Amino acid sequence: MPNPNRGACGFQSSEFEQEYERPSKSEAKLKAFIEITAPTIEGPAPSPGALRRWLQHRGSTHDRRPRFMGNRCRRGPRGMNIDPVVQDILFKRLGEYASGIAINQKAVYAAARTAVRALNAERASDHLPLLTPASPATVHRFIRRHEDQRVSESRYGKRVGSKPFVPIQGSMDAKHILDIAIIDHTPLDCFVIDDEHLINVGRPYLTVAIDAYSRSVLSAVLSFEPPSVYTAMACVRQTVRPKLDIKEDFPEINGDWVAFGVPDTIIVDNAWEFTQSSFADACADAGISITWAGIADPQYKGIGERFFRTLNDMLIHRLPGGLPFTPQRRKELGIDGLDRAVLTMTDVRALIYQCIIEVYSKARHRTLGAAPEDVWKRQAKVRGTTYAPDMGALDMGLTRLSSDRVLTREGIQLHNLTYRAPEALAGLLADLVPNAPRRNAPRTGVQVKVKFEPHDLGRVLVY
């Protein structure tokens, strides 16, 4: 017969199983057995179905070992079995731990152990029982259990220490597609080679805009230009336009990039590259408001960062030249992306577009419970999409202003290149030369301002 005085952890399922080893598993026989056995065993009696499952899945007849019996302890938080004197020592050391990050858990353990040893020396002389020092694991659990907001703020400072305990305020709550878009950028975890000269040119930057409501990717710009007004503006320009050129440039991609339109608000880094007036003015002209993410406060950028991790898992880390590990781990494994780079910039751009269109947009998103493309299409049928009213403003936002240049009958010199458009040149000279200072014109030309796009030096804007 089972022992009714089994320990506090109890082995109810084990005792029922070991007691019942009869071949019959009928409902009636199991029920009769439970009625007879239940009064002698601590804890609630199982149902016949539960007992039948235990017998089927936990060992075999006459072989009911403890490791087969699942969770044998009662549920609920366990207390810490620490002597009150040792606990007082740990509370004192907790104050030192809260004083700053210089005191870590190892230091707390060492200090507490030294204090216990000193007390044990006194207790031994008084013929008192010795105290058991707390183990490193016990010290860790003690600190974790008592590291409340006060301790955390004292240790890490109010701004950082309070974060785990304070609900996020002002988090994004997009009501519909194109309500909020997040622009974020990252160095690509992949080395590429130059399209023309086929030499390794390093790691490009990827800038994306993501719709907060549907998690659809609105744009993806791959460039060697570090994060700047150009990359942000290029991302916005691709966001507001149908991406028909992608299908023309990469016909091997199956499907369409359905997500585009003018977002009501974009959220960008509060960094110098995004606070330039040309970016803000161009967005305002297009009817787009800007929200600056707080400095050292990434709560607004989580959507972009999660997308980069997803893209790395889906594609980038699997490519030749990809960097799937941390720098330290790559060094340990002897992985050098420079030696493995075989894909050109165009190849990587095509693969990123293909991954977004064919895989990411059609895969079930854990937060949405549906594919981003499906969510976008459902909303687009209801709300439609908005086109940019003035693409010229966005195009101007992409340009950089050069220093004053001289317009002559030969054209304009910029970056060791000569720009010459006969009809436009004739019109500019006709308008500007009569108003130029007589001592300079027409012999040396006229002073003009020039704007250019860093990624496309095939044209300049003169005014």
Category from helices, strands and their pairing: alpha+beta
Annotation field: number of helices: 18
The CATH architecture of the largest domain can be named as 2-Layer Sandwich
Number of domains: 4
Largest sheet: 5 strands, mixed
Helix content: 25-40%
User: Rough shape?
Assistant: elongated
Superfamily (CATH H level) name of the largest domain: Ribonuclease H-like superfamily/Ribonuclease H
The gyration radius over C-alpha positions equals 35 Å
CATH C-level category of the largest domain: Alpha Beta
Low-confidence stretches: 1-11
Main attributes of the structure:
463 residues; alpha+beta
Polypeptide structure, described:
It is a single chain. 40% of the residues lie in helices and 13% in strands. 27% of the residues are buried. It contains 18 helices and 14 strands. The protein folds into four domains: 12-68, no CATH class; 84-165, no CATH class; 180-395, Nucleotidyltransferase, domain 5 (2-Layer Sandwich), CATH 3.30.420; 400-462, no CATH class. Mean pLDDT is 79; it is low at 1-11. A hairpin with a 5-residue loop joins β4 (205-211) and β5 (217-223). It starts with 11 loop residues before the first helix and ends with a strand.
